Amino acid sequence: MSLDLSGRQYAHVDYDEKERLFDEVKGDLRYDEYLYGCYECGICVAACPSARFYDFSPRKIAQTMAREDVDLFYTLLNDSVWDCSQCFSCDVCPRKNSPGGLITLMREVAVKNGLASAQEALEGYGRVVYKIMATGTQVSPDMLQANAFPDWGPHVKDIAKNLEYWRKALPPESMNTTETSWQVDDKTIIELYLIWHMTGVMDMIKEVDEGLFMILQDVMEEKLEDAGYDVSFD
Amino acid sequence: MSEQPVLVIGGGPAGIEAARGIADVGYNAILVEKRNVLGGTPELANYAALTPDFRDAGEAMAEMAATVTNNPNVDLRLGSTVTATTGSSGNFEVTIKNSKGSEKVSVGSVVIATGFQHFDPGRETQQYGYYEYDDVITLVDLEKMLKAKKVVKPSNGEPPKRLCFIQCVGSRDRQIGNEYCSKVCCGVAAKESIEVRQLVPDCKVFIFYIDMRMYGYWENEIYWPSQEKYKVNYIKGIATEIIKKGDRLLVRGEDTTMGRPMEVPMDIVVLSVGMEPSAGTREMAAIFEVKLNKYNFIETTGGALNTVGTSVEGVFACGATTGPADLEDSISSASAAAMKAITVVRKSAMAG
């Protein structure tokens, strides 16, 4: 992520607003299972892969929530929570806290409330989110484009040329597709769309990426209507 | 030769328990207490609830006192002190003095249970302004407020919005000379923090510590509940000074685990004062010529396997007379001392 010096991080936010977000995290049903009290012992940091590479500390997350430090919570909500890979190695906690779980809750609150930091952090994932929400599979052969993932190397260009042939070389029929990882049947897709809708995922997408939301809305509405569901995303 | 009585000095929990134990097995105890009431420091210092079980301290001490009051095997001497002794194990002659005069009695063995006193935070370094600021108090002062069910700022009588404990005041400190851990202050602070949160629910409570020593079941009995249920903030870092700011106190220190300095306003600062040997402990050590340790507690000489024997044969010490001890430790060592004291009188009776 590039260094953002736009001043956003330093914009004044009222304490009441920070507290509202804090209370939203604390109010989640899962909260009491994710945080008991923090020894501040650091076992979670020692177990955390992200802590090796970033200025990131799951201890600080648990500690901040346990101490009810609303200001620091707000800082972490806009920054550290996106450094976590959600691997839950931190669940080794002797008090049975789950700093990773707390981060899940914090991310959800950040997204639901459309925080600019959340939008920025998730920007690069639009393509993947679109793919998985629209098709039910995450990575598809047609994502193999030279400009898409530079870290896949220069040979991607050659592979991308004859995707259909490459895919036909795969024995299972369900894999002979280029737009998805495998063929997803309509029943599955309809159920997925309903899940995205009913669990509030669409609402979260709307907060974090309006454009993506509109594209998904188009794709989903048509299929759902054909299947006989009357779903309005408004 | 018939069995001599055992002299028990000190009518606090340890002394009462030792005398009761001696009486229960059919031996005689002379229980000497300087004050006119039994119950020792818990009674004297107005303890509200005991650590860790929150039992009413007054009720518990009354229950203990009843076991040695009007007990045919306990010769209870209130308002009395031991002023001199001669003889040796199995055959001491001690002088007991009260307002009416002095009396010499023969005893076979002695249990010293004269206990501790709370560290005076105004002594030595004066680090936290105990005698300077009304709102800087001790665990003992707070205990008194808790007993009255009214926790307020001493300076203006208003309920506190922010209250903190500072641990290890007068303990673990080379500057002061008390290098030992006083064992109970962590538990007592955690207990009191819960009581403050119960009495003043909108008061934020902090505990500044070096390390919390919540051994055994204190962990889940008081430490975890205070943090998890009562949301007491434990911050590793000891305040370096307290300064006055307006009508509040400013506590300066380091929030070590967060890696940042801190300056936080407080309405009440509670100093978690530790234990020092009581005047009575030092006096009895001199009279019975038992060795004191470096910190002026009576030294036990039997190592880990004999926690009550002293440098003088036939003289035993128990409870906080030998070093910091909680109530559980005191009661246990009192029983051990009673057992050994009885052994002495029994053996000398058999020999005689």
Q: What's the total helix number of chain A?
A: 14
Using the alpha-carbon principal axes, give the shape of chain B.
elongated
Indicate the radius of gyration of chain B in whole angstroms. 22 Å
Number of strands of chain B: 18
Greatest interface and its residue counts? A-B, 12 and 10 residues
Largest sheet of chain A: none
Structural class by SSE content of chain B: alpha/beta
Structural class of chain A: mainly alpha
- The count of helical stretches of chain B stands at 8
Q: Give the biggest sheet of chain B.
A: 5 strands, parallel
The fourth-level CATH homologous superfamily of the largest domain in chain B is FAD/NAD(P)-binding domain
State the end-to-end CA separation of chain A.
Answer: 32 Å
Largest beta sheet: strand ordering of chain B: 3-2-1-7-18
Overall morphology of chain A: globular
Distance between the termini of chain B: 5 Å
Q: What's the assembly state of these chains? A: heterodimer
CATH fold-level label of the largest domain in chain B: FAD/NAD(P)-binding domain
Query: Spans of chain A with pLDDT under 50 lasting ≥5 residues?
Result: none
Strand segment count of chain A: 0
Mean pLDDT of chain B: 96
Low-confidence spans of chain B: pLDDT under 50, at least 5 residues? none
